[in-house]
Each structure stands twice: as structure tokens, then as C-alpha cells.
Amino acid sequence: MLMQFLSSPISQWLLNLLFESLLILAPIAALTSFAKSRLSSASTHLLWCAGLIAIAMLPLVPILFSWAPNAASTTNGLTVFTVTANSAQLSDSSALILAPLVTALYCIVAFALLLSLSRSWWHLRNLDALASACNDLDCQQLFSKLVEDKEIRRPVQLKISRAVNSPVSYGLWRPVVLLPETAMQWSTSTRKQILVHELSHIHRLDWLTMLVARIICALFWINPLTWHALREMNEAAEKSCDAEVYRHNDEHIGYAENLLRLAKQQSSPHDSPLLAQPMFGRNSLDGRIRSILERRLPPRSSRMLKAFVAFTLLISSIGFNQLSLVAAQDNLEDQEYLPIRAIAPMYPRRAADEEIEGWALFSFTVTAQGTVDPDSVAVVDIEPAGYFERSSENALLQFEFEPRIVNGEAVAVEGVQYLFRYHLQDEGEPNFNRPPPEARNRNND
Q1: Of 141, 135, 210, which Cα lies nearest the Cα of 175?
Q2: Alpha helices in 247-302 (DSSP H)
Q3: In 345-406, at which residue ranges do the beta strands (DSSP E only) sit?
Q4: In sequence order, what are the residues at sequence separation of 6 or more whose Cβ sits closer than 8 angstroms to the Cβ of residue 201?
């Protein structure tokens, strides 16, 4: 049953998705691990962002949705599929039930993660609504000067809230820097360091990349490397913003001391929304302080790194680009309908147990959208009856085609016929009580 389930289209799609995403993220994990001392935090962040965006584009690649059947040939204009009975193909009701259950479980977990993300969004909106504007004149003047120095063109707000105990920044069009109430007791130099850090997040659009990364993790939750990528991304973003604080001065030791002191001064922990990464997050604080004390100033991203990121995105999106090119060409010239996705039918368990071989000839309509019209599927001929109808029809309804193009427009094609031949063995002549249509055609020629 396990082999049978793994051979189903749904499980193949999930396994292919997992495998392809691992192929993209694993080299990035290896590169950021072995070249950690030579890569800047900004470069590490860029690599993980590119990797997550690349796997988000995987479902757009049509090759992941194409599974070829055991054998297909064309005889006298009739497309023939040969299905051989084996342990991976025998249909079993338990396996047929298991595939939808696994799909439902996958969707439920993804939906739950997206729901948690939406709750975090609502929590963030409530925090923003309850926060008050900073009325300290010196703090506002310092904030305005730093915004100008960072060349941030969007309107940025500075707010105070008793509901947080760590500075956070969030928002895209009208970003907000939210400070805890204790920030009013900080020294001017400490405020400057904290504000530079949070404004660096806003300048780098870190909130947007974190939002996109969390959505991708929710949709691709089955891949553990996506969650590793999210953690590495967040840590790299924090380290990169830390570096901006001490890039042009000698405050790295004082900044590290302030981070540690303010983190220890946190009162009872408040729940930080997922969409607002706290500055004093304990999971990454130790590594950040070590980096600050070692004064690792991030170099500018090299051309080789930018080329690697561009190449990763290009390879991941090539399937989508090919689809666009094909669609553009279809509008310019006529073409016949072409199969792009064919699902091999399961050999019915009852037929295999009774050692029955046979065939089924189906007629159907290919719609202008390239799908099989369910109402048009009809059995033209079958031998023997009562065994192969359901298996053949279930597979046929999943076929997809490039539609026929006439005068630049997609049109439906009626009367398409496919023949499914069911053999118990790979070799040898099949034992048909009545020969299938293509055999009869050869005898008549």
C-alpha cells in the first residue's frame, strides 16, 4: 500500500516539491555554513531570500506537474497507453483513500500556519492602535535626523507602547518604529543606537522579506530547510543592522554592553507578534554580541554573489518563462492540441487477482482550456466489461493538453480517442479475448 500511495500523482507532486526545494536550499545551507567567515550578514540574508523565493516559484514549473505513463504510442491516429500490472500500480481502495487524507493533512497544517500568521497581523494592528506617539522633543529630533541620514523616503512613525519590552519595527508603506516605555529612560547614545538599528531594518525592507518568508514557510512547511532558512534570514538581518550601528564609529563595545543590559532588564515577557521580530530576541542575541565584539563589518556584496543569486532565480523561473513564451507563440500561429500531462491508470486489483487482461477505448473532448471535459468522457469499446472503466476514466480526467489554436484562438477538440491496454506482464503477447482497435486496424491494412 505504501508503494502504491507513493506512486499516486498527489504523493509524487509532494515528493517532487520536497526534493526540488531541498536541491535549492541545501547548497545555500552548505555555502553559508562553510563560507560563514567570508560572507557578510547582508550576503547571507540575500542568499536565503533568493532560495525561499526560488522554491516559491517551483509550482509554476510545468515539469513538476507532468508524469509520463508506462508507455504511449500512436497507431493510425489512435493514442495507445500500455498499463502493466505490478505492485506500484495495482489499485487499492485503502491507497486511494490515503492519498486524499495526506493531501488534506498537508493543507490543514498549511492553513493553520497561515491562520497563525493572520492572527499575528491582527495582534500587530492592535499594538499599533494602542501605541502612542512619542512626545519627547529631543527623541523626535534625533529620530527625524536619522531618518534623513538613512534616506528613507516613506513616512516613518515613532511610537511608544507598554505592551512591548523590546524595540520592533514593522510596516511597508507607512513603517513604524515601536519602543517600550522604558526607552524614555535610556541615554541619548543608547536611543541613537537602537533607532539606527530599527531604521536599518526599514531601509532594507526586512519586514517585507520576513512576511514573504513566513508565507513561504507556511506553504512549504514539510521542508525543514525552509524553517532553517527563516531563522538564518532573521539572524542575518539582525547582524546586518547591528553592523550599521558601529560601521562608522567605535561604539561596538558599548553597543554590545547596551544590548546585553537592555535584554536583561526586560520585565515579564510579552508575546511578540510573528510579524515583528524583537530586537532583543534571546535565540540570536549571543551570536550577535559575539559578532559585534569581533567587529565584523560586512563587505559589500560581490558581483559573483549577485550573479549566483540571479542564476538561482533564473533557473527556478525558467519553466514559467517557457510557459509565457509558448502562450505568446500560440497567439501568433495555429497548432494542434498537444498532451502535456498524462497520468498512468492503476491496474485494477480485481482484474489482477483474476489474471484478466483487457483494454478500454475512450472518447472525450479537449476543451479550449486544455482540460478533459468530464461530461464528454464515454466508453467507445471495452474488453472485458466491468473491470477497466473506472481506472481508465480516473486517469483520463487528470490529463492536460496544450489546446488547439485556430486563427490565434484556442478551440475545443471533440471526438479524441485514447486506448488503454492492460497487460499482466511486461513481456510476451497479451491474452485478449477480442483484439483492441489498433490490432484490428493493422489486420485490415
Answers
A1: 210
A2: 252-264, 282-293
A3: 358-366, 378-383, 400-402, 404-406
A4: 169, 207, 237, 241
Strand partners, 168: 178
> What is the value of pTM for the model shown?
0.61
238 residue type, one letter: E
Q: Which amino acid type is present at position 86?
A: N
Please indicate, yes or no, if residue 253 is contained in any of the structural domains.
no
The sheet that has 358-366: what strands, in order across it?
A: 71-75, 78-84, 413-423, 358-366, 378-383
Q: What is the pLDDT along the chain (445 residues), one digit of tens a residue?
A: 444 444 455 566 667 777 777 888 888 888 888 877 677 778 888 888 888 888 887 776 544 444 444 444 554 556 776 776 654 454 444 444 556 677 788 889 999 999 988 988 888 888 888 888 888 888 888 889 988 888 888 899 999 888 888 888 888 889 999 888 888 888 888 888 888 888 988 988 888 989 999 999 998 888 888 999 888 888 888 888 888 887 766 566 677 777 777 777 665 544 555 677 777 665 666 667 677 666 554 444 555 555 555 555 555 544 444 443 344 444 435 556 677 777 778 888 888 888 888 999 999 999 988 899 999 999 999 999 988 898 889 888 888 888 888 887 888 989 888 888 888 876 667 778 888 876 555 444 4
* Residue 296 maps to a domain: no
**Which grid cell is 113?**
500556519
The string of DSSP codes covering 39-85 is S-HHHHHHHHHHHHHHHHTGGG-GGGG----SEEEEETTEEEEEEE-
Supply the CATH number for residue 360's domain: 3.30.2420.10
Structural domains of the chain, count: 1
Check: CB of residue 83 under 8 Å from CB of residue 421: yes
Examine residue 5 and state whether it is found in any structural domain, yes or no. Answer: no
Domain interval for residue 371? 71-91+337-444
Residue 345 lies in a domain: yes
What residue type is 319 in one-letter code? G
Question: Vertex 149, ends 146 and 150: CA angle to 5°?
Answer: 90
Place of cell 562553510: 34
Q: What is the DSSP letter of 169?
A: E
Angle between helices 206-219 and 224-246 (to 10 degrees): 170
How far is 318 from 61, CA to CA, in rounded Å? 7
From the CB of residue 398, how many other CB atoms can be counted at a distance below 10 Å? 14
Task: Say if residue 221 is exposed, middle or buried (CB neighbours under 10 Å; 0-12, 13-18, 19+).
Answer: middle
- Residue 44's contacts (CB-CB under 8 Å, 6 or more residues apart) are 32, 36, 232, 236
